[in-house]
Amino acid sequence: MFADLPAPPVAAKKPVSDTRHGITRTDDYAWFRADNWQAMFKDPSILDPQIRKHLEAENAYMEAAMGDTAALQKTLFNEMRGRIKEDDSSVPMKDGPYAYGSLFVTGGEQPHYFRTARDGGDKETLLDGDKEAMGKDYFRLSGIDHTSDHTLGIWGYDDKGSEYFTLRIRDLAAGDDLADVIENTGGGGVWAPDGKSFFYTLQDENHRPSKVYHHVVGTPQSTDRLVYEEEDPGFFVGVGGSLLDDFIYLDIHDHETSEYRLLSTKDLHAEPMLVSERVEGIEYSLTEGGDVFYILTNDGDAKDFKIVEAPVTAPGKENWREVVAHEPGRLIISHMAFARHLVWLQRSQGLPQIVIRDRRTGEEHAIAFAEEAYSLGLQGAAEYDTDTIRFSYSSMTTPGQLFDYNMATRERVLLKTQEVPSGHDPEDYVTRRVMATAHDGELVPVSLLYRKDTPHDGSAPCLLYGYGAYGITIPAGFSTNNLSLADRGFVYAIAHIRGGKDKGFAWYENGKMEMKPNTFKDFIAAADHLVAEGFTSYENIIAEGGSAGGMLMGGIANMAPEKFAGIIAAVPFVDVLNTMLDDRLPLTPPEWPEWGNPIDSLEEYQWIAAYSPYDNVAAKPYPPILAISGLTDPRVTYWEPTKWVAKLREHTTGTAPILLKTNMAAGHGGKSGRFQRLEEIAFEYAFAIKVAGKMQA
Predict the structure, then answer these.
(1) Ranges in the chain, pLDDT < 70
(2) Residues in domain Peptidase S9A N-terminal (predicted)?
């Protein structure tokens, strides 16, 4: 499989010891963390030459190991590209006299933003992403947001992969940018109704959005007014607006606690008004409904959330009145309010639903769907006084569909069906949802996609994907890329493991903090079930996960390496204990509610130390592993997978290769262009196909 490889790079050992709670640990590879990492994110050229030399050696070794897949990668890329409508366009969303949308041009990597007259007409290009990206190795747009009078737009870009966005202001009629340049932002801004100023978040030196500023068009950034500063490094700040343009929302939150402050657009220089002070473990979010706010919250033991309302003039908790009761097992995910309707997206029995309530009569109805497993997205509307909302639907076999839905008449209008230019017949494929029994008797949903002619005798290879963190639910939606695996006889599977909210909020709680090992055990249980039911065999399962899902990959590699033929870990968060012990890193304080605070708590130190993938590498035969990282990634820093790979190589008792691919001009999300991203997916799938022995398939 991986014959005649050169010797892999051997990382130098430079032991560094650290003692916490009376426990001393020694890290031989801590030196991979550059002292100037913060500055390096903005200027990668200043990376320590010794570290760069090692990363380049790792890339060379990876290329040698994967060299025989070059033709396969090209084939996969061409297949995936052939399933994309290159000159695709969104269906514009109506807002005032215009409708706004985005499109791609044939051969283009970046989106173009446009508008038309409200009821259709010629497209007016507002922002050409391909033009702006010209000559840059990395380029990512954060979108464009227009003023209420439709004359100006804020747009942002990141050209390093470090997620420090620069904002510019565009004259939408002339197509030119004004002189204003706002640097080191979170990526977007919210206009004041008069279109003369906007609000944005600034990333601090530790890459945390901790400040909200008010910028007046035509003035230098240095004169911007500080509106709010969050002193607690464990909380991030976001800024948003409402459909009615009455308020600027300041959203202050970590992973389990939230607080809102409101700035009336009638007095932009007033002190933001606190809605309800933060209480640990209590979350809430607001949407404006005329003279009331509708507030989604878990307050009062509403674990799966409820909706309350409060007067706009007095939105404090003492005035909250329940309007949608809490129902255990029915998780309310998000909500929107319009002039005559309240809308929310909920998940019940692992499947999403859109529910609509008439605000005048209280009558409710849900939009119904028939498939066994599917994905649903609620886009809502850009206007408040409307009866029409927009939603998207797909399943693992059904291409994406976009609908306008009249909440009053219940009429559903299909606006667009995702085109697959190279052809796709849903009847050739099967999508299923099966239940795997976990170690403690819980049933873990697993979504499957495979061709109808795939044998169920254990011979089929399987790519088993998982994430399992932050309450994020992985939808069972349509992906043209996955068809390249299914067409080669693979079963593509998504394990909806604890740590996500697939089965309600308790599903999340039982996969975090001291319960984190449930996430790993659920994934292994999913693999066991697929083998027991004949979908695949242990010799044919390739596991895949990224970021926190990369932690999952490290966990299952240590716990059950014999049950996986290979492992793909993209930007893997594997050095959990060291990262959570360093409060200078961008995400560490906000992450403590998710993983624990090992600085202050011996117990929480011990939780993390017991599973942290890097700390639990041991002498055992690891399967082939592909780790992927980005040099300027502020979320999972490049040194985590670099250290992990070095330690795996040192300890493995097997002969399988451990590979590291570092994107030297990208961050957490990999390359930024739509086709560049396909190249990366083709590379990952080529690894899976090679490990599965299907190179000629």
Answers:
(1) 666-672, 697
(2) 8-417
Q: How far apart are the first and last CA of the chain?
A: 15
Which residue in 254, 522, 575, 633 is the catalytic one? Answer: 633
Number of Cα atoms under 13 Å in the Cβ half of residue 548: 21
Per the annotation, the verdict on 456 as an active-site residue is no
> Could you give the maximum distance between any two Cα atoms of the chain, in Å?
73
Amino acid letter for position 312? V
Q: Which of 258, 547, 612, 629 is catalytic?
A: 547
Tell me the CB-side half-sphere exposure of residue 176, using CA atoms within 13 A.
3
Res 43: pLDDT: 87
Residue with structure tokens 């959990």? 576
Contacts of 643 (CB under 8 A, 6+ apart): 27, 29, 30, 32, 575, 614
Task: Determine the pLDDT at residue 362.
Answer: 95
Position 669 scores a pLDDT of 62
Give the pLDDT confidence score for residue 386 in this predicted structure: 97
What's the pLDDT tens digit per position in 142-175? 999 999 999 999 999 999 888 889 999 999 999 9
| Contact of 165 with 149, CB cutoff 8 Å | no
Q: How far apart are CA 675 and CA 104, in angstroms?
A: 11
pTM, entire model: 0.89
Residue 334 near residue 535 (C-beta atoms within 8 A): no
User: Which tokens is 168 given?
Assistant: 């510019």
- The pLDDT score that the predictor gives to residue 263 is 96
Candidates 631, 544, 663, 675; CA nearest to 40 is: 631
Residue 37: predicted pLDDT: 86
Dist CA 659 CA 625 (whole Å): 6
43-48-51-56 Cα dihedral, nearest 10 degrees: 60
CATH of 21-81+436-691, one of 1.10.1040.10, 3.40.50.1820, 2.10.109.10, 3.40.50.720: 3.40.50.1820
Q: What pLDDT does 670 receive? A: 58
Q: Considering 335, 395, 668, 672, which one is annotated as catalytic? A: 668
Tell me if residue 207 is catalytic: no
* Neighbouring residues of 169: CB distance < 8 A, sequence distance ≥ 6: 152, 153, 154, 177, 178, 180, 217
Residue 470 · residue 498 · CB < 8 Å: no
Instruction: Domain ranges for the chain, please list them.
Output: 21-81+436-691
Q: Is 276 a catalytic residue?
A: no
Burial class (CB in 10 A: 0-12, 13-18, 19+), 19: exposed
Contacts with 313 (C-beta within 8 Å, 6 or more apart), sequence order: none
Q: 13 phi and psi, to 5 degrees?
A: -100, 125
**Both tokens assigned to 100:** 């706004």
